[in-house]
Amino acid sequence: MSVFYHPLFIVFSNHNRRNPHMTPNPPLRAPVPGTDEQGRRVYRVPLAKARVSATIYAEDYEALIAQGISGSWSWHTDARAVVVGTREGDTRRTHRVARLIMNPPDDHRVYVKNRNALDLRRDNLVVRKIKPKPTFAGQHRPV
Predict the structure, then answer these.
(1) Residues ≥6 apart with Cβ < 8 Å to 60
(2) pTM for the full predicted model
(3) Are 56 and 101 in contact (CB under 8 A)?
(4) Residue 89 and residue 121: Cα distance in Å, rounded?
């Protein structure tokens, strides 16, 4: 907490001293440890800009952190998935956390069994091969 000296009064504030209108960065959202219905250790990871949290097994979360993946996750409304951003030099990328957990080949997709995209427990994720889209090259297209 900083103290600002004003001629008429003293102001106690968390604002930056150089720029009083600038608010400080919020603290990193820490995962909340707990257990699930089967008694397995899980983390509930709060998501950025959302009032919800994702559930993940503790060993999967710790493995992602050991790989250098950030613990600051967010909810991507367009993709309806939990995502995490990474930086490699000047390049920024967004990855789906479910895909990082299961690590499928490129021609496979990760689906959620119970249709709750916030439930990232390994038992709830399944990997399936992507069905190729039909091509009509050289054929009569159906009308």
Answers:
(1) 101, 120, 121, 122
(2) 0.71
(3) yes
(4) 31
